[in-house]
From TrEMBL, chains A, B:
Gene Ontology process terms (BP): glutathione metabolic process
Keyword Zinc attached: no
Cross-referenced CDD domains: GST_C_Sigma_like, GST_N_Sigma_like
Name of this chain's protein: Glutathione S-transferase
InterPro entries: Glutathione-S-Trfase_C-like (IPR010987), Glutathione-S-Trfase_C_sf (IPR036282), Glutathione_S-Trfase (IPR040079), Glutathione_S-Trfase_N (IPR004045), GST_C (IPR004046), GST_superfamily (IPR050213), Thioredoxin-like_sf (IPR036249)
Taxonomic placement: Bacteria, Pseudomonadati, Pseudomonadota, Alphaproteobacteria, Hyphomicrobiales
Keywords: Transferase
PROSITE patterns named in the record: GST_CTER (PS50405), GST_NTER (PS50404)
Highest rank taxon of the organism: Bacteria
């Protein structure tokens, strides 16, 4: 039975981290966000009262009777099933710790354009977004990239992967978050990547994986846009 | 060998979720945040270059040679070792999914007093904090409490615990986040808890656990204050 991925249509968002793992695994899945009436389908699912383990928010993955929400928890589940995480428990936990740190970065990237409220448009909180984005651009991106660079450099199995010497879901997620930062804050991110050779190499390595490349070139990959988490507002790029 | 918990001194913060699990487990641990010169100890640790798996930020837990960071990952580790999580893999993942949702709520609570930048004081972003807190108070707290109430009501093993019929680290964390909300937003949270009988009962149940009660009454429990995540600024309570 195929997996079913539920998420908001029209954007990459947090669902994209799950998609990259499913694509790399060559998994059989139905992307409910890419079907007609996807938003109505999603909302109807969220309103169901017969589900013992409802997710607080999308994305969530359905695997038969099992429903798993929270991006990092979905990847923990898929990582074990598709060889995208180490089997050793301590290394498996380390990959998860990295993923949780990526999730924090994703949350901060979102808040650059919505610092005051998720109920307002960006256009209604532009001065505050400008302030928040400045801090993110000048302090936070670098701090995160430095940490990724450091853990790559310290990986005892080599600096090609975040953990061990094979691909993990955290590598895929780091690729995705760098792509997002390059879209949203191109000037700043390009400058910082020039000083982050290991992160840059990992990004290219992931992009060249045959299944990832095929996915990125397909129309299944929705383009970044100004409805998602990573939005390009030139005035926020400094 | 005792665990060692590293965190910022003087506040409960994210470290408190780990402390509650360690206390409930009756685990042997050294709280490095409660020792003299704790901040210098922490910073020196963060600056070490000989650690293969450095954490991006505190809290982190040292167990012999193993270092685990990210609150939810630490709890995943402790939950398995101390019977604070189900053994069944799908239920274990559900408890973790709940914990990750609690982590999102904690992050949102923090941002009510720091919507623009972590580098500014609250006093330098009061109008923006007022706006962000209004949204949090009027929309977000209720949405989260409704979800906790729903998953308690739908627990097939009864509504006394978030998952199964025994205590998990997620129960402890829900207690902590409700305590924090009651401290920071007492008017709003009391009103909402009056309509959340299951969450209220869980809070009391956890507070009455003998080891938790002993901890809460001890001087190991630092009081909530205006340096932590949950801060009581009356003007933000509406």
């Amino acid at each position: 039975m195929p997996y079913e991925l539920y998420y908001w249509p029209g954007i990459q968002g947090r669902g994209e981290f799950v998609r990259l793992a499913l694509e790399e695994a060559g998994a059989n899945y139905i992307d409910r966000a890419r079907e007609p009436n996807a938003e109505a389908t999603l909302i109807a699912f969220l309103e169901r009262t017969d589900i013992a383990h409802p997710s607080f928010a999308p994305p969530f993955l359905k695997d038969g009777q099992l429903i798993v929400g929270q991006t990092a928890a979905i990847l923990l589940y898929l990582g074990d099933r598709h060889g995208l995480a180490p089997k050793n428990p301590e290394r498996r936990l380390w990959v998860h710790q990295i993923q949780l740190t990526i999730a924090d970065l994703v949350g901060e990237a979102h808040d650059t354009h919505h610092p005051l409220s998720g109920d307002l448009y960006y256009e209604e909180q532009k001065p505050e977004a400008s302030h928040r984005a400045k801090w993110f651009r000048e302090e936070r991106i670098q701090k995160y990239l430095d940490w990724f660079e450091t853990i790559l450099a310290r990986n005892p199995d080599g600096d090609a992967h975040l953990a061990g010497d094979t691909l993990s879901y955290a590598d895929l997620s780091l690729f995705q978050v760098v792509e997002g930062l390059l879209y949203a804050f191109p000037k700043k991110t390009k400058a910082l990547l020039a000083e982050s050779p290991r992160v840059s190499a990992l990004r290219l390595m992931v992009a060249r994986r045959p299944r990832i490349r095929a996915y990125l070139e397909s129309d299944r990959r929705v383009k970044f846009n100004e409805h998602g988490i990573f939005r390009h507002y030139p005035e926020l790029d400094g």
